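Need residues for this backbone.
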């Protein structure tokens, strides 16, 4: 038993080191390609090697819909009654909304303190990609969110990995299933078996992660080069300051609520954090995160309910970036934004940003819609495109941290957090 646990721990450590090595190798290889090859070669290398990351993301996306549906259904049915579902959901939404407001507020404060838009000298050279994003953002408002909430077909929702829509169907399906009592047990047991089978698949898929990290990072650095950090130095320094502030707040609150358990959690999720950072996809680590949170003592039924909910309502890194980037664009254009207007923007973003998980470049689309609403030229988002990939690395990693903390804290609030001893070195 102990040998088996030791072997599993060694495998997790090995995977972490492989991913870290792939990250460093990708940076070096990408810079070499950027510095010593032609533009045609750079384009060819980038378009081909990033397929490694695309394959990994697709492998993960392949299992997200069945995993979300099965885990939510099993989790709610194991809770036993609708009152517990409402209680746990209420506690989760309390955390989500609080974290959202704090994240948006930190972005607002940091961009006003540092004012990177007034000290960054960049010009718009190509707005074609921004134009496409602007078209996609048309109608991005509260009404569209509500209309998008309920799926026309559960099969289309699963085919498109619409986590929020799958969540709505799974909750309704679970509550209906609960009404059958013991008659529903065979269905619940079957779905439980499917979810564990899918999690077994995760163990195989995760070994593709180092290749995905290598491909994604090499392509990004080869395309833009490390010199991009010098051009956007003021913006990046201010953004890093904002993300670091958000991490400090999240970890401080986590320590207050979880105590030393926080360090157990951070150690357990270090591989998902690194994968999210390297691939710019918090969605890519969802299955692995389910597994790791259960290992640190979180109740499986809480994990299976709260984590999918968090992926639609608790993207802390993305929230912080939205207020930060929106005011940054206003600063670049010399537009004065009174504090009252900025607070109004914060609350608009709080409402319109929900349910964006799984939408490509969703943060930029929401930023464009918000800029249009408040008289800021939406074309200014083109200034963010060269550096957005690198910002997305930090956003994705922060989203994973926020959802991990939310799930663990709610488990503790429900007295469902098992005690796991901190290993003594």
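Answer:
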């Amino acid at each position: 038993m102990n040998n088996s646990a030791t072997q599993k721990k060694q495998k997790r450590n090995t995977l972490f080191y492989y991913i870290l090595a792939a990250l460093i190798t990708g940076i070096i290889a990408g810079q070499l390609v950027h510095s010593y090859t032609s533009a045609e070669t750079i384009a060819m290398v980038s378009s081909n090697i990033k397929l490694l990351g695309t394959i990994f993301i697709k492998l993960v996306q392949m299992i997200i819909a069945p995993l979300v549906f099965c885990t939510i259904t099993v989790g709610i049915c194991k809770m036993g009654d609708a009152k517990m579902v409402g209680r746990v959901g209420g506690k989760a939404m309390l955390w989500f909304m609080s974290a959202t407001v704090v994240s948006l507020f930190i972005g607002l404060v940091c961009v006003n303190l540092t004012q990177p838009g007034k000290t960054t000298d960049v010009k718009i050279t190509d707005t074609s990609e921004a134009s496409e994003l602007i078209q996609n953002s048309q109608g991005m408002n509260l009404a569209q969110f509500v209309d998008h909430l309920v799926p026309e077909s559960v099969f289309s929702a699963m085919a498109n990995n619409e986590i929020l829509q799958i969540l709505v169907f799974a909750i309704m399906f679970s509550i209906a299933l609960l009404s059958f009592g013991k008659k529903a047990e065979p269905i619940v047991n079957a779905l439980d078996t499917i979810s564990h089978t899918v999690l077994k698949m995760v163990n195989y898929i995760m070994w593709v992660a180092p290749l995905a990290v290598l491909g994604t990072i090499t392509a990004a650095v080869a395309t833009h080069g490390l010199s991009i950090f010098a051009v956007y130095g003021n913006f990046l320094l201010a953004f890093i300051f904002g993300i670091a502030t958000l991490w400090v707040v999240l970890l401080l609150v986590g320590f207050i609520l979880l105590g030393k358990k926080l360090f157990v959690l951070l150690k357990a999720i270090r591989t998902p954090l690194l994968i999210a950072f390297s691939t710019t996809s918090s969605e890519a680590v969802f299955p692995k995160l389910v597994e790791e949170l259960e290992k640190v003592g979180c109740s499986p039924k809480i994990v299976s309910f709260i984590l999918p909910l968090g992926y639609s309502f608790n993207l802390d890194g993305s929230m912080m970036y939205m207020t930060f980037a929106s005011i940054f664009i206003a600063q670049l254009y010399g537009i004065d934004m009174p504090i009252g207007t900025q607070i109004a923007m914060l609350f608009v973003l709080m409402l319109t940003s929900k349910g964006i998980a799984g939408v490509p470049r969703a943060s930029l689309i929401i930023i464009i819609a918000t800029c249009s609403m408040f008289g800021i030229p939406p074309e200014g988002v083109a200034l963010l495109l060269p550096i957005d990939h690198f910002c997305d690395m930090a956003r994705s990693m922060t989203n994973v941290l926020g959802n991990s903390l939310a799930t663990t804290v709610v488990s503790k609030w429900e007295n469902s957090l098992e005690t796991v001893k901190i290993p003594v070195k």
